[in-house]
Amino acid sequence: MKYLIATHNQGKVREYRQLLDDLPIEITYLDEMDIKEEVAETGETFYENALQKARAYARLSGLPTWADDSGLEVDALHGEPGVRSARYAGPGATDEDRYRLLLHNLAGVPASKRTARFRCVVAVVWPDGRSFTTEGRCEGVIGEAPRGDNGFGYDPIFFLPDKGRTMAELSADEKNRISHRGRAARAAKEKLRARLSA
Ligand code: ITT
Fold first, then answer.
1. pLDDT in tens, the chain (198 residues)
2. What distance in Å separates the CA atoms of residue 151 and residue 175, rounded to the nearest whole number?
3. What is the dihedral of CA 140, 141, 144, 149, to 10 degrees?
4. Residue 20 is part of which domain span?
5. For the domain that residue 130 is a member of, what is the CATH number?
6. Pocket test for ligand 1, best of 5, 8, 9, 83 (most atoms within 8 A of CB)
7. Which helix or strand (DSSP H or E) is residue 49 part of?
8. How many domains does the chain have?
9. Which of 5, 69, 70, 119 is the best mutation target for the ligand 1 pocket, counting ligand atoms within 8 Å of the beta carbon and taking the most?
10. Torsion angle of alpha carbons 183, 186, 188, 189, nearest 10°?
11. How far does the centroid of ligand 1 lie from the alpha carbon of residue 197, in Å?
12. Distance (Å) of CA 60 to CA 9, 23, 67, 149
């Protein structure tokens, strides 16, 4: 049985190609299936949106489908941008526009109050309606200026105090080991493996 990894975000696609390479299943992506539809994310939580995406693409593809909804919660902004992380600077904005706006909105906030976390909820949905979700988190601090060229999204401003580096200064392997997506994906892989061997 083939599984669809349903995301239009090429940063996520790169990470999933690595994170899922040891799963004993065949995997395909939206590009390979030529699915161009964007699913509106109308939920107020990462759980609702992840399930909404996975259900919609399972319907479109007829395949068991894995989707994630993820984003950055900044404590000094009461959890914003949160589920709106991809839309934070409006339509047509780039990753850089979004993290520059976030830095602007945090101007003058001292380091001790710049705590934040990345969250990722993975939803796996089968065409017959069965589903499960998992979640991963990664705690950090929003820096004063961007650093690093790896990763995507808000990685250049997400500083990891334990590592002394931003997420964008980690290699792909290092990021997958500690990231919200790496954690959610490992938990989801365990659940999938249990089902495959049942
Ligand atoms: P799909 O819905 O097609 O998967 P998307 O980019 O719209 O793509 P989300 O709705 O889940 O995905 O939005 C997640 C946003 O949160 C993403 O666009 C980034 O801005 C940010 N984000 C999520 N994971 C990230 C990561 O690992 N590093 C940096 N930023 C991340």
1. 899 999 999 999 999 999 999 998 999 999 999 999 999 899 999 999 999 999 999 999 999 999 999 999 999 999 999 999 999 999 999 999 999 999 999 999 999 999 999 999 999 999 999 999 999 999 999 999 999 999 999 999 999 999 999 999 999 999 999 999 999 999 999 999 998 888
2. 8
3. 10
4. 2-197
5. 3.90.950.10
6. 9
7. helix 46-61
8. 1
9. 70
10. 170
11. 31
12. 18, 23, 13, 35
DSSP-derived secondary structure letter, 83: G
Span from the CA of 108 to the centroid of ligand 1 (angstroms): 26
β strands within 58-157, DSSP E: 65-74, 115-125, 131-142
Amino acid at 32: E
In this prediction the pTM is 0.97
What the block records as the tokens of 141 is 């601090």
Distance CA 103, CA 105 (A): 5
